[in-house]
Amino acid sequence: MSVVVPPLPQGAGYGVVVGLGVTFALGMVWVTNAMKKAFNEDNNTTETFMVANRSVGTGLTAAAVISSWLYSTALLAASLLTYRYGLALGVWWGASASTMICVMAYLSIEAKRKSPNAHTMLEIVRVRYGNGVHKLWVVLALLNNSLVFSSMVLGASTAVSSLTGMNVTASTYLLPLGVAVYTSFGGLKATFLTDYVHTCIIMIILVWFTIKVITVKEIGSIGALYDAVLQAGIDKPVEGNYQGSYLTMRSKESLYFGILHIVSNFGVVIMDTGFWQKGFSADVAATVPGYILGGVASFSVPWTFGTIVGLAALALETTPAWPSYPNAMSAEEVSAGLVLPYVAQTVAGKGGAAAILLTIFMSCTSIASAQMIATSSIISFDIYGTYINKTPTDAQLIRWSHIGVVFTSLFISSLATAFHRGGVDMTWLLYMIGNLVNPGCFPTMLALLWKRQTRTAAIVSPIFGMACGLSVWFSTAYYYHGDISIASTGATMPNLFGCVTSFVVPLPTTIAISLIWPKEFDFNTFSDIKRVRAAETGSAPMRDFEEERELYFTPERVKYMKRMSRWAAFWAAATVTGHALLWPLPMYGAKMTFSKTLFVAWIVISLIWLWFTLLVAVFYPLVDGGLSQMWTILRGRREGEKKTSIEGSQNSTPPLEEEEEVEREVEKEVADLPKGV
């Protein structure tokens, strides 16, 4: 593909992929054992492995949300698409990251209000609609996770290969290897902890690299970057951009991609059980602020990083320092995501290449851990625990979770390899994924939010939506390009029409069917879902069910969750309106190119936002109880049976602390009673 000599030796690739993978695995095994000793958190129980005891605080939740959007594909593709279409792309990509996370904050608090003991999103679907619909959702969720995970591994492996010369197939199999080890040991809590560590490293590198790009001698300043990009628009104007400029928000391809990606990411997030599990695992008081803070902060990464790196590539490719100079990048190199690796080589040589290699590894393995937990939970809880062994013990569920992690690692690596050998690259997967994952989006949300959606509607609407979406996708590919091939089905317009169709069609379909044959659902049924008891069958209650319900649904907590639900709905609406409508659309209609003053302000504000993301992701979790918990782990002090989250007990709502204290006192008194009483 590329004739550019990799700046780093193959040994560097294997050293990072294998060496760091093993290091993180050993480190996470130690941390898991230390947490078990200090906080009595046993990752060999389903409640800890799948949902981290539902006690994660605000800071760590926000960091995990930011990490969820630090896809290696995001870093690579935001840069390459900005290189193609200009600075408008970064804003649209940022909007596609922030809006649905804030929507997810609303869905998460609603799930805690109605189904506080759920383990997966699919469990909620099964309780409401039965096994038939549940099986359909298992397929939809696994399809979503497989495409997202494989595209991320494929993009990362291609970038690792370009930086080190490492074999792409070897990279696809070795990247998830260490992740599978520490995920098997640590479960979802390990995912939160590794998310935090990886995000710290990634954010520090991103902040350093953006400054390095601007100050490199071939550019020198923001103003000089403006001048170089302005000239690039004259030398090779962009079709569909106002005056062919890269410095305009009126970019048709950016607009089309923005709509496509926002719609597709709604499907990617809502159909990903990993995002739901992070909501289930968060403390009641941490759910909404954690998701909203993480969602707003996540906007800066594709906007700032994608804009600066993508535009810098336009400025640098005409200089002798560019790896392929005097030749421009080929279309294949651009589609494979090599814009970022080439910029790294140009601005920082082997050091820059090593930093980007580390960033890609960190982003890939962080997402891989979350994807493995999500997929393994479906295998253990929704397949094994529902259809193979209907009364599983806690140990059996954990065993199948471990099997699911290993299976996921091997399957995704094989799928990514098949895509690579078949000529499919990261960009093709990025564009087409919504055609297959969007149909379940509205039916899933309505399963939790609308009591009148019926079982028939839940079955018909996603199937019909997918059929319509695929039909539109293939037919428009043939209409625009005269054939149905990888090239034609990966083009913008066929995917735009197909993804929007598969997203929108299920909504009127499910509403119409539900209103024609009406039947209402009692949301109180969701609270029948019970937690899994260690050393007991999956159906055994942790205590008397009515007592458990009363302890959770206190008047104070119910009132608090209703208030948080309203706040989440407000922030979701405000984020969609601001980030997707009020910001980019009016600037698209303005028919103007950026002046140098506006461009400098644009870059400066984006850098400030990126630094804000750094503070939220790196320092806030430490201030929010992380330092005290880390000190406890290092001292190895055991805190008895008290269930303390990694964020600190201060994140729990006061009514819950009082109730748990009373509950412990009652249990102690009962235990002290004479036998037979």
TrEMBL record:
Single GO MF descriptor: urea transmembrane transporter activity
Keywords: Membrane, Transmembrane, Transmembrane helix
Region (Disordered), start-end ranges: 638-677
Membrane topology: Multi-pass membrane protein
Signal peptide (UniProt feature, chain positions): none
GO cellular component entries: plasma membrane
One Pfam short name: SSF
Predominant place of localization: membrane
Membrane-spanning intervals of the chain: 12-31, 51-71, 91-109, 136-160, 192-211, 255-276, 288-316, 352-385, 397-416, 428-450, 457-480, 495-517, 567-586, 598-623
The family this protein is said to belong to: Belongs to the sodium:solute symporter (SSF) (TC 2.A.21) family.
Protein name: SSS family solute:Na+ symporter
Organism (species): Pleomassaria siparia CBS 279.74
